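Lecture 7 notes: from sequence to structure.

We start with a single chain of 381 residues. Read the sequence below before looking at the structure.
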Amino acid sequence: MTDQFALIYSSRFSDYSYGECHPFKVDRYRLTYELMQQYQLLTPSHVKQVECPVASEEMLRDFHRQDYLDTLKSFSLDDDVHANFFYGLGDIENPVFKGLYDWSRLMCGGTIEAVRQVVEEGCRASFSMAGGWHHAHSARASGFSYLNDAVVAIAQLLKQGKRVVYVDIDAHHGDGVQQAFYDNDQVLTVSIHENGKDFYPYSGFVDEVGTGQGYGYSVNIPLVPHSDDLIFEQAFTRMILPLIQGFAPDVLVTQMGADPLRTDPLTRLECTTAFMEYAGRGFLETGIPWVAIGGGGYDRLNVARAWTLLWSTMIGVPVADEIPAPFKKTMLSLDEPCDWLRDPPHMAAPDDFSRAQQSLDKNISIIERQIFPLLNLSARG
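Now the structure, written as tokens:
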């Protein structure tokens, strides 16, 4: 392992669109790249940029069913209206458009390449911002996700005999990844997210712990609405880091969704950009070969700021708080003015914090009793 860091990117990320009214804005990748560039985070000698390849269909078949892939492919050949709700395709959530299949393969290929950079090229860490499609199932699109890049990439690691910890910090439960490895003891999945009681995808409860050989290797840390940075940091320190250390994986894969930020339009958590820096430092300090992938985030300025801070943290290059003037101009032209890279400190209202703390303490107690002993971990109190 070297001190090199790989960023997987392609200008082709912006070639398609979910539609003007869809909450997922593809241009967030371009904006993130431009902000990184203006902070001079792409030029250090220990950083390399890698063009994103397209995932092969053979690799996709390690998780996805052929009938689903065939349907996705055929629907992507033209601009005609297509729908197959059995496969989750063609509704408002998961629209179908010309080129969708190849575009999805491109996003999936970035995560596969990020894994290759760490495992075969010896990079200390890699970041594929276009990854993180954690809701896709083997034969069903879901939650804006068509191909599950994390599952396909982890499948390649399992073929090499690697043990993997997958940590998902997106505001939404990583249900597709959990389901893929629910009976597998070679992958520990950990998801911290907004409680699914009344929030998509309505899963990720603390009692979802795996089955068969995978019993104890699925961990969920649901957070009540209005949980803030302090709640997240406690969960990270008391749960996530010990679980990583206890499992002792060969590779760490993390989904770094930016939608826990308090100004995200689709979520109800109250984190700031500080949570992204905190998580980035924690993952890096484990010393485990690390693959970071993107994820949710429905305010594109939030995404650009959070992932720029993540990349800065990963590669160890500090950045100033004031946004570079050219990027300010770009965001002003999009009617989204901005001045600062980091959010100001924020705490939830006292009643909200109290509820969040009580819920977190209860869930931590359950996990410590049920999961920790399986990994030879003891409660820290």
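The chain has one domain: 5-375. Keep this in mind for problem set 3.
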